[in-house]
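During the second year of the project, the team shifted from modelling isolated chains to modelling whole assemblies. The rationale, set out in the original proposal, was that interfaces cannot be judged from single-chain predictions alone. As a representative example for this report, we include one of the complexes processed in the last quarter. Its constituent sequences, exactly as entered into the pipeline, are reproduced here:
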Amino acid sequence: MNRHWVLAATLLLASGNTAAQNAADQMFDPEEMAKAREALWSSHGSQVNGLVLGERFEYRAADDPLLVWEGQGWIGTDDDKLWIKTEGEYETDDSRFEEFEVQALYSRAISPFWDLQIGIRHDFDPNPSRTYLTLGAQGLARYWFELDAQVFVSDRGKLSTRLEAEYELRFTQRLILQPRVEINAALSDDNDIGVSSGLSSVDAGLRLRYEFKRTLAPYVGIEWNRRYGAAAEAIEADNGDPSELSFVAGLRFWY
Amino acid sequence: MDHAAMGHGSDRASERSKDVPQAHNHAKGPGVVGLAENPVNRLGERPVGLEDAPHRVLVYTDLVALDKNPDTRQPGRELELHLTSNMERYMWSFDGLKFSEVREPIVFHEGERLRLTLVNDTMMPHPIHMHGMFFDVVTGDHPYKPRKHTIVVKPGEKMSVDITADAVGDWAFHCHLLYHMHAGMMRIVSVRDHAKHS
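Output from the structure prediction step:
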């Protein structure tokens, strides 16, 4: 506090010497003070922050056991962010990726709870790979539903869409049940990657996690997957079931 | 200096009808979620968290200055400032604008007595702190107002402090929860000697 009073007294004495609008300019090099003010402004509201969130990093005990991941991260200011999303499935028996997707998006805060996101999605798998232009909205809907709705246009000009919805039921501050639904649909056929027009897949999961720390939570759950259209026919032709219910166990983390 | 352009009203609290809803003439964007539609003076209420404490709790209206306030003039004007936030994005601001978005200070004129009215649109209490000058907390119309340099504004509260602008210079004005300050809940108050500077 003492320093403040000394500064105040000095400013009182120094005032009136010039017509400067910034009091400190009367005592110090105005150029230096301009730099100091910029530093002050930029450290009070426009800092660059970041987040890495591993939402699902899990083992899925299906007929063909899978390692599944879904994560996202961002770096940027309150309003403008670079947003990365990735998800995929790895078949442990065959040692191969079934799906491997990465998105790089520019994200803009457009309202208190919603971000508009535009960018590129690249699927390394399935084979052949595809690159998409993507436009979407991610945010928190009424009653605390986390939503992510995206539209994709592939490098073959094919249009598809995806909706993800999550909810968090807090039994306690640490024990949390998370219902989750993801719906994929296509507006046109892309036979090479087994996509036909219409509903492609519905995934519904229920995961119960325990947050040992806010940043670290193991979970167990069940996941129901159903394929439709060309993908379902391919599975049926292989004597498989396009609908599958499996047990999952994994880890959720962030920093 | 054009004060109307700074977005601060000059109406007196005493003239405002209780039936008129609270105006929110400030920026609203991704950083502003709630607005206090009907804020009330809560200086006589217990602090958040101590509402049901079984013991006696001192509240602001229990405080009386030991000495008569050095400046007993009626305030010549009133500034209204809103405490705004979006907790989901961890954005904190005054009047919907983070410090990084504001280049103009809040201007006081040297020697003036003014009333600063704070409206808390957020969902939590904020200890609002000003360097350089005291807040005479308006607990009533009397010359023994308690003098503070930090005042906790409760959620949904509208309260006033009277200030004598007796320290020319630039002063920090901010929420003393420093994470909030760094997120943007901060302003510069510039006390200007207009005889010399205008």
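The radius of gyration of chain B is 16 Å. The first strand of chain B starts at residue 77 and ends at 86.
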